[in-house]
Protein 1
Amino acid sequence: MQKKWWHGKVFYQIYPKSFKDSNGDGIGDIRGIIEKLDYIKALGVDLIWISPIYVSPFVDQGYDIADYQNIDPIFGSMQDFDELLEKAKALNLGIIMDLVINHCSSEHKWFKKALADPKSPERNYFYFRKGKEGHEPDNLRSYFGGSVWEKVRGEDDLYYLHYFAKEQPDLNWYNEDLRHKLFEMINWWLDKGIAGFRVDAIMNIVKDLNFPGLPKDSGSDGRCAVNQMTARLASKVGPFLQEMNEKTFKKHDAFSIGEAFSVNPQDLEKFIGDEGFFSSIFDFSTRELNESFPFCYQYRPISVKDFRESSFKAQLRANDIGFLAPIIENHDEPRGVSYFLPAMWQNSQGAKALGTVNLLLRGIPFIYQGQELGMTNTQFNSIYEFEDLNAQDQYKACLKQGLTPTQALAILNRESRDHARTPMLWDESTFAGFSNTTPWLKVHQDKEILCVKAQESDPHSTLNYYRKLTALKHDPAYQELLTYGLFKPLENPSDFTICFERVLDNKKIQVFTNFDTHSFEFTVNNKAQVLLSSGKGCLAEGKLKLNEGSVAVLYFED
Ligand code: GLC
Ligand code: CA
């Protein structure tokens, strides 16, 4: 494997709207991030991914971009951004931006020109099509519900394509001018000195230009979820990604990470091998367990065993190919502690053990803001408390399916993306130190226990444990092993344990976590020493006794 500068690094994802509000409007901003750089540094991460801060009408929380080369005033100015970049650099923290190029906002000047003038070059930056027999051109269902086609106002039978909201028209990657414009924009940011990009929804850029649609799925609307089409076309996306890499990331030795669902296992090397399209792609294997279901009322809960089996499978596949990026949550997911763990371990003990798995699996781990505090899901008491457009769509779909409002709310309380988007908890004050006014999204019910201020001073807090984890990842004695060491499953005595090892030459690190209701005894190498642990466990004469809710990380040389 060719060595790259990003190997061994740990990333921290910031959702800027919810991180820190510096000017009292209830919305997080760039100056808020600047205020908290020391906190981020002290967490021991190397790079920050900032979700979109570009000019946007915020139909999809900034993932609908109206101007790729300017900062939305809600977040501050380009001067603020430059200052952030500079101050982060001084702390040796890199910044990667979000690259949302499957679609833009319907407020982008390209789309406005395309609508205003059918003869404009911009018209071909998008997909405009006539209907078929009085219907939309195909029967695909957008990610956020309803058809992927929206009628062009004032035209009889003309539609444009949007895989997400109707305010997010898809960009036509088959148009060379458009690709050129996008690559120019990417290089402009890289020239500014950012370390790279997280590349949004990228598998969707490939289309079947005949727009044939697909047989209807289990929904009652006669449609088929658009992700099924994307999955079918997955092996055709290569040339676009290769071109983008060659014309942008590669030239700058930039880090790139794809939000790439449905990659065929046989294509993994093309994506993340030495000459791959990306430096890494997220491991969404647990998410993919529910991918075939179009509506979240159909999702089945994901157990510790499901998590273990699917992520182990992904790890084994990537072992001699490249690095996946392990996550337990992001801004599109409920909190991992609430989602994957049994109720009794949805607490600090569970958070530490799950965090250990997240950071010590092979790959480039991402920590999502608040994860290091052990944040769980926020309790939403009514549909009106949700902000996400997807929550609103899914709620309607639940009711249409005959669920009661109480049942629908319970489903959103398990699945909604808004769980990850509630304000970061800095202290125990009314607005959690996030803002001095009512925040745009409600504050978590357990701010007193979960907040940074309470955890700073407690040596046994989740936050201080995460700091030990990042320190271990960077410890020169283990860094090689924790970066390049192969992943191997260990024997798991229960459906509620996650045990694995990392192996390099004669060196081994073994991770034991126990989310069960009783303790286990493991036979281990008698030279093993404990590098890190939480909860109760003891190691003596080649036996590790690990109590329920505990984690232990062992090291030995054979
Ligand atoms: C990605 C983003 C998500 C957004 C969607 C459309 O999945 O992570 O937040 O809604 O793309 O841009
Ligand atoms: Ca603000």
Protein 2
Amino acid sequence: MSEQLDDAIIDKLPPEIVEHIEILERMRKDFVANVSHELRTPLTVIMGYIEALRDEAKTNPHLPGPLFDKIYKQSLRMQSIIEDLLALSRIETNKQIAVSDETVDVNILLNTIVQSAEPLIQRKQQSVTVEIETSLKLAGNQEELHSLFSNLIFNAIKYTPDAGRINVRWYAKGADCIFEVQDTGIGIAPKYIPRLTERFYRVDKGRSRESGGTGLGLAIAKHILIRHKGHLEIESEEDKGSLFRCLFR
Ligand code: ADP
């Protein structure tokens, strides 16, 4: 089933069916939110024990340190999935609440995100350029916009091989404010592009896992954009690179 039922399709359905779909949707959202929340506490406890075991293994050669490292790495992955599911639930729940009319300084936001990505950029020896129209502010929710831009910037870094180039832009064009991330990465074949914003959809599951992906980043991005009355455009060519563009009106 598609991620969201089109309004045009909903309009054609009998009201009792629409009501039934809405109830099921609510149940699905509640279930995901509750399960994610319930998993958080035991996982935190497990991670605490594993951290203690890893520390112990540093001084005790009889303990299987590399095994503890593997368990720890997978726990971190699980933690990221849970946090992303909770973020998605929050955004979906807030759907009816208007985003606040606070003005976000995108200049500061983008510089903060790129700075936090610096260790990864250095490790991959990539060059990242940021072009910003500094006077251009955006009305919206600071935390959600941080999550949106950061998902797209980190994806560009993750899916671009070592020594690749990434260009981040924030500018105005006509009535639109535009955020763009362009990379010289692995690219995406056209047939996969329409499905990228579905939950857990990955073109290459192995590669996504290896780079710490949860498969939820673009689903989160899509919902944040809906809330900010923006939309996403994706242009990509396999083995050449991708361009992710967010348009805000
Ligand atoms: P993930 O956590 O796997 O990165 P996302 O929802 O952020 O999940 O992205 C979904 C999929 O879209 C990724 O698994 C990857 O296959 C593809 N993708 C996203 N961004 C890029 C990019 N800049 N270049 C190539 N592929 C990308």
